[in-house]
Amino acid sequence: MIEHVDNPVLEVHDLTVSYSRKPVLWGIDFTLPKGCIAGIIGPNGAGKSTLIKAIMGVLSVSSGYVKIFNQSLDKVRGRVSYVPQKESVDWDFPASVLDVVLMGRYGKIGLLKRVSKADKKIALECIDKVGLSAFTKRQISQLSGGQQQRVFLARALAQEADFYLMDEPFAGVDAATEKAIIEILRDMANLGKTIIVVHHDIQSVINYFNWVILINMRLVASGPTKKVFNNELIQETYGGKLTLLTEVGNILKEKQMPSREN
After folding, report:
1. pTM over 0.90
2. CA nearest neighbour of 24 among 217, 237, 216
3. The CATH number of the domain where 95 resides is what?
4. In which domain, by residue range, is 127 found?
5. Which H or E run includes 220?
6. What is the pLDDT of residues 146-186, one digit of tens each?
């Protein structure tokens, strides 16, 4: 089940990505509406991070195209923010929390221009939003995993983008940080921002996302969570792993969400 929308923020059309001529994503085709929090859901090795990297132009595609705000990425890059996996960053790099968050302003001011008082004010406000005001001058190497993830989010907020792509922002964080992040994402969505998140914890999908993209190298489903997050499509995505499907069935029952057969 694939639900397309009019005037999408994101349009992915017939996207195929290959490594060494071997497709790892095949014929991905979906659209996203403005103001949604969308989760990319699928098993390990399904191509979730590959998809988000292809959308961002970090990986080249074998066929198909991506449009953001009905334009190519190069024309709207200033409106797009990408939060990579925490593990992809050298956290021993000598930089403070404020230094990293100010990097989010470079797209607005340019790499060679001085940071203005206004830019610093925005960065400090973003640090406050993620609850790290007491750590502004702290070296990032001295932060916990959850605090490092909050720094990433603050840097993304400082970009003042309209479309955010986040690669597993909840991975390896404590419960308090996870709660803080999802509350910030909801506030962003309420302001009309669109957020797409690579996510691995299937038990929190219903509570976190109002749009779901189910993939396993190909697109299984894309649409509102209430329509696509059901036993049949989850089984098609995960290949019938019994333990997982039992857990999901219990979650759906608790939330009184319909199965596709009903």
Report:
1. no
2. 217
3. 3.40.50.300
4. 79-161
5. strand 219-224
6. 888 889 899 999 999 999 999 988 887 888 888 888 999 99
